[in-house]
Amino acid sequence: MQALPVRLVPGDDVRHTLEALARNRALSAAFVIQGIGSLSVAHLRYAGVDEPTVLARDLEILTLGGSLGPGGAHLHMTVSDSSGHVFGGHVSAGCIVRTTAEILIVHLDAFRFSREPDSATGFPELSIHPQA
C-alpha cells in the first residue's frame, strides 16, 4: 500500500484530473480516502437521478472519497455553500477547483480493479482482482 498526496490547482476538473493521474501513474487499484478544498462549480449526480445537478457558486469540499482504477473513477463528494447548505452525490465531470483541492490517494499495489456488469444492479460495478 502506498500513500499519494495530491494537490489540484485552480481550474482543474476533479474527476478528469484524478482519472488522468491514475492512468499516468498506472494505478491498478486505488482509493481516494479524503479530499478537502474549494470549487467554483460542482456537477453532482444525486441518487436515482440520471443527470448531474450543477451548483455554480463558491463551494467548500467537505469530503471526497471513492475508487480509482484502469476503468475510471467512482467518486462521491459533499460540498457546502456560503450559507452552510450541504450537498452530496456522485462526482461528475465539471467539478472545477476554485483555489485548491488537497487529496489523499492510497494505491493498493497487490490488487487490480475493473468495472464489470452486475446483473443485480444493472450497472458496471467494482470487481477486485489479486495482482498476479
Automatic annotation (TrEMBL):
Residues 1-129 form the PPC domain. The keyword DNA-binding applies. GO terms for molecular function: DNA binding. Keywords: DNA-binding. Pfam families: PCC. This is DNA-binding protein. It comes from Caballeronia sordidicola (Burkholderia sordidicola). The lineage of its organism: Bacteria, Pseudomonadati, Pseudomonadota, Betaproteobacteria, Burkholderiales.
